[in-house]
Amino acid sequence: MNTNTKKISAKVIAAIVATGLMSFCGVIVETSMNVTFSILMREFSITTNQVQWMTSIYLLLVAIIVPLSAILKSSYRTKTLFTVASLFFIGGIIIDALAPSFWLLLVGRAIQGIGTGIALPLMFNIIMEQVPTGKIGFMMGIGNLITGVAPAIGPTFGGIIASKLNWRWVFYLLIPLLIISFLLGEWGITQKSPIEKQQIDIFSMLMIVFMFCGFVTGFSNLGSQPFMTFSVGGALLIGILGMGLFAWRSLILEEPILQLRLFRNKNFSGHVLGFFLTQLISLGFAFLLPNYIQLVNGNSAMIAGLIVLPAGFAGAIFAPLGGRILDKFGARKPILIGTSLCLIALIAFTIYGQHLTSTFIALVYILYMGGMGMCMGCVMTSALTVIGKEKQSQGNAILNTLQQFAGAIGTSLVAMIVAANQSHLNVVRRVSTAIGTQEAFGMLTVFCIIIWISYYRSVKK
Questions:
Q1: What does the alpha-carbon distance between residue 8 and residue 3 come to, in Å, rounded to a whole number?
Q2: Which one, of 93, 246, 109, lies nearest residue 176 by Cα?
Q3: How far apart are CA 66 and CA 205, in angstroms?
Q4: Using one digit for the tens of pLDDT, what is the confidence trace for 89-134?
Q5: Which residues form the Major facilitator superfamily (MFS) profile domain (predicted)?
Q6: What is the value of pTM for the model shown?
Q7: Chain-centre distance of CA 365, in angstroms?
Q8: Most buried residue, 169, 296, 440, 442, by CB count within 10 Å?
C-alpha cells in the first residue's frame, strides 16, 4: 500500500498522545512553578539560589536519563518503559502535592525527572517506527503541538493557580491528565522492534553524571557568583572533563550509550547544531520577555504570561502545518521558511530592544514562535532520516540529550548579560534591563544566522 495513503491506526495515535501528554505535563510543571518561586521562598524560608533547584534538579535527572534512551529502547519493551515512566511521574507529582518541606519537594521533582527522562524520547521513537513514511512529518508536527502548547500556557496557568488557589494545585490538577495518559498508553502502545539486551557502560554513565552535574550547577550559579569559584568555574571544569572523557569512551566502545560516530555525517551534524541553538534561543526568550514585560514595562506576572500566550498557540498550530509541507515537498522548505521567520523576529527585537511595547512583543513573538513551530518537528524528522532507520533511536537520544543541555545553559547565558548591565550601568534598573535585553537579543540573532546557514547547507530536500 502507498505510504502516503496508508492510515495511522487508532492504537498508534493513542500511543503518541499518551507519551506526548506526559511530556506536556513535565513542561507544564517546569514553566508554571517558575511563577510560584517567590511564594515558595516565603513559605519554606529559602533563598533564590535554593528555590532554583526546583528546576535544576528536574533538568539534571532528565539530562542524565535521556542519553540512555536508545539502550533502554533496545533492552526493554516500549510499554514497560512507558509504565515505569508513568508511575515515576505520578509518584513524584503526589509527593510534591503533599510535601511538608522544601527538600521533599525536591525529591518529588527528581522522581518526576526520572519519569520524564524515560518518557521524552518514546513519542518520537514511536512516530519514526510506527507511522507510515508519508505521514511522519504531520505526526511529528502533532507531537510537537502537544508539547509545544505547554511552555505557552505554563506561566499563565501557574499565575492563575498561585493567585486563585494554592501552588499545590499545579500538581493536583495534572493527576487526571496523567491518568488519561496512562490508560491511553497501556491500551495503545505495541511492540514493533525486537528486544536485544544491551549493557550500560558504568564509566560512561558516571561521566554523564559529572558532565551534567557540572554544567547545570555551573550555569545555574553563573549569574549570581564570581566565575573563579568552585560553584561556577570549578563546576564548569568538572562538566568539561566529564564531557571529554565521555566522548573519548564513546568513540572506543563498540556499543556506547550515545553513538557519537553519527557526527561524522555532516548533514546530521548540521541539523544537530541548528536544533541545539534553536532550543537555546527559545529558552533565552522564555527568560527575557516575561522579565522585560515586568521590569521595564511595569506589568504583573499574570499580564506577562497573557502577553506571551498567543505566541505559544501560534507555535503549536504551525507545527502540524510544517509537517504537512514536509510530507508534500520535503523538509527544506518548512525548515528554511520557519528559520527565516525566527530571524526576522529576532532582528526586530534587537533593533527596537530598548522600546518594546506589550503589543509589539505579542505580535513579533507570534512571528518567532510560528516559525519555530513550523521548523522544529521537521528538523527532527529530517535529522533522523539522514542517518537511516537502524540508527534513528540513537539519533533521537542525541537530539533529546542536547535539548536538555540547551536547557541548562540557555537561560543562564541571557540572564548573565542582563545581570551584567543591571550591575555595571549607572542608570535606573528599568533602563539597564532594557539595554541588557537588547544585547542578549543581539547574541541570539547571531545564533539564528548560524542556524539558517547550517540548515541551508545540511538540509538537502
A1: 10
A2: 93
A3: 11
A4: 999 999 999 999 989 999 999 999 899 888 878 887 888 788 887 7
A5: 11-461
A6: 0.80
A7: 18
A8: 440
228: cell is 573563579
pLDDT in tens, 210-221: 988 888 778 777
Does residue 53 have a pLDDT over 80? no
- Cα 382 to Cα 327, 394, 458: the distances in Å are 11, 14, 10
- C-alpha cell belonging to residue 284: 533565552
Query: Who contacts 431 (Cβ-Cβ below 8 Å, separation ≥6)?
Result: 354, 425
Confirm if 279 and 118 have CB atoms less than 8 A apart: no
CA–CA distance, 203 with 189 (Å, rounded to integer): 33
Per-residue pLDDT, averaged over 155-159, amounts to 76
Q: Record the cell numbers describing residue 398, joined without a space.
A: 542525541
The rounded distance, in Å, linking the Cα atoms of 67 and 247 is 13
Task: Return the C-alpha cell found at 339.
Answer: 528559520
DSSP string over 202-252? HHHHHHHHHHHHHHHHHHHHTTTS-SSSIIIIIHHHHHHHHHHHHHHHHHH
CATH code of the region 1-198: 1.20.1250.20
Q: How many residues does the chain have?
A: 461
Cα–Cα nearest to 419, from 318, 264, 295, 334: 295
3-state secondary structure of 355: coil
DSSP code string of 5-32: TPPPPHHHHHHHHHHHHHHHHHHHHHHH
Q: How far apart are CA 375 and CA 404, in angstroms?
A: 19
C-alpha cell at 135: 505521514
CA neighbours within 13 Å on the CB side: how many for 22?
35
Q: Do domains 1-198 and 261-461 have the same CATH topology?
A: yes
All three cell numbers of 125, joined, read 521513537
Instruction: Give the separation between CA 38 and CA 19, rounded to whole angstroms.
Output: 32
What is the model's pLDDT at position 77?
Answer: 87
261-461: which CATH number, 3.90.980.10, 1.10.10.10, 1.20.1250.20, 1.10.530.10?
A: 1.20.1250.20
